[in-house]
Amino acid sequence: MLLDPTDEARLRMNRRHFFGRASLGLGSLAMGTLLGCSKEKTALLQSADPTSRLHLPRIAKRVIYLFQSGGPSQYELFDHKPLLRERQGEELPESVRGDQRLTGMTSGQGSKPMAGSLFDFQQHGESRAWVSELMPHTAAIADDLCFIKTMHTEAINHDPAITFFQTGSQQAGRPSIGSWMSYGLGSDNENMPAFTVLLSRGAQRPQPIYSRLWGNGFLPSLHQGVQFRSGKDPVLYLRDPQGVDRNTRRRFLDGLAKLNELRLEDFGDPEIDSRISQYEMAYRMQTSVPEVMDLSDEPDEVFELYGEDARKPGTYAANCLLARRMAERDVKFIQLYHLGWDQHSDLPRELASQARDTDQASAALVTDLKRRGLLEDTLVIWGGEFGRTNFSQGSLTATNYGRDHHPRCFTIWMAGAGVKPGISYGQTDELGYNIVENPVHVHDFQATLLHLTGVDHERLTFKHQGRRYRLTDVHGEVVKDVLV
């Protein structure tokens, strides 16, 4: 018996295909914006799926995350501990360390002599925040910053620790935080990706960074981060092949979309929708990406603000300036990674070099956003994956020492949308080894970030392999004390 083609397609649809078609969820709104839907159609998608609405009032329209990969030492930058100087060279008391596990680099080290910072601290601004002499530009904007001095994590090595911050799990494979935001909130600019990534590296022992850190995990591939590079092709595979003009490209994409739509009707796989939207986004980015990467329209005073390195593609300063340009174009999540903060030895020299690379540009970004009226709805974050030990790894001398990884307490700062400016939150003990007041876990940080963007971290979920996942897993509390 001959079947009607429609009936035949239905018979080919298995259980996986059916639930795949039925579970677009929050992604429907994001898909609509990326496909260039009209406001009316986007509104229809949103009203048809109540979970796609913002759960909370949105304060931050965009996030710029300045991730300092390697673990910056809090003792030399933001957590002033004069008692460490007084007790220089003394053994770290067992009562302070407790059952804290150490990495293989210091667990077998017989002596653990405490090491005070070689760099001076002063209090700055009306907030009287303690900031090291290594960060003079950051010190100048202390009243715009919220220092969280009691971040803590379970991860003790770089890769799981960075993965934990970026995905909510120490094991690879989960969606990154930018992908969650793209999935939950969509895009405000149909000509740019919702989630972009920029990389730079210092001269000091850069730890490797893997592209899975901005991957979409089990979310539709539409939501993966797009890396912008400093070379001739900022985004790979964006240029038309030789001999292909815009009109030919347009006709090719139209024909390919029709084929993909036929495939979608047969199988209902949401990834086919993602593929269509990615081709269309790439076509639009052929115009928008060169425009955002071209700094020739920036006046000299902007380069003076960010530093001369901002004229050199691929530097941290240039990436901070690009982050501001992307923020102006309503890119939702802008992720910067700066590598090289892993000072196991020769810390005074190497850390000073890292600070010179990043201090001016980080402060300039906050200042630039503020004067353009963008800071009030842009959240800026600065920090790494863990801190450093208060004792020296290896030999301690009067002028040199190193520090191992320390997950129990470390410092980050935040600025902008919805965050209280000019405060230092949390307190560590006099030796800077343990938290004594207001601990903030990685999941708490993630919950707070999502809260500021209008998302309830407990309600932003995605069903995968029979379980509903979220960025914060089954943990996390919004840190309301740091919010305006």
TrEMBL record:
Signal peptide, first to last residue: none
Record-linked Pfam families: DUF1501
SUPFAM superfamilies, per database record: Alkaline phosphatase-like (SSF53649)
Name recorded for this polypeptide: Sulfatase
Originating organism: Neolewinella aquimaris
